[in-house]
Design brief:
Blueprint: H1 3-6, E1 12-13, H2 18-24, E2 37-41, H3 44-56, E3 61-63, E4 80-84, E5 91-93, E6 98-100
Parallel strand pairs: 2-4, 3-4
Antiparallel strand pairs: 1-2, 5-6
Length: about 100
């Protein structure tokens, strides 16, 4: 595996693991996410590695949706679900109308 894929060793998760449960947790219990594998990406590098690993395996990829649209699309069958939880969070300055998203 190359260095990008090495990032996934601790975050790529299969059903039946706590990591999978974290990555697939939903607010809307009527629309559960049940992909074959899931990842909670905590950095841009982990998102990149997840997408590359899925491409290497010809797996479809879906980003975990949240909020009101969470049940609008079914989970990826036979694919990878990517949930993002970037370190540092998003900072919004409403007065200046600026949002900062972590890039590391």
């Amino acid at each position: 595996m190359n260095q990008q894929h090495d990032v996934l060793r601790t975050v790529l998760a299969a059903p039946g693991t706590a990591e999978y449960d974290e990555a697939t947790a939903v607010f809307n219990l009527a629309a559960p996410a049940r992909p074959d594998t899931a990842v909670t990406a905590r950095s841009v590098a982990e998102v990149r590695a997840a997408v590359r690993a899925a491409a290497d395996r010809d797996l479809p990829v879906r980003v975990h949706t949240t909020g009101h649209a969470s049940g609008a699309r079914p989970a990826v069958d036979g694919g990878l679900l990517v949930r993002t939880r970037l370190a540092g969070g998003v900072v919004v300055d409403a007065e200046r109308r600026i949002a900062r998203v972590p890039v590391a």
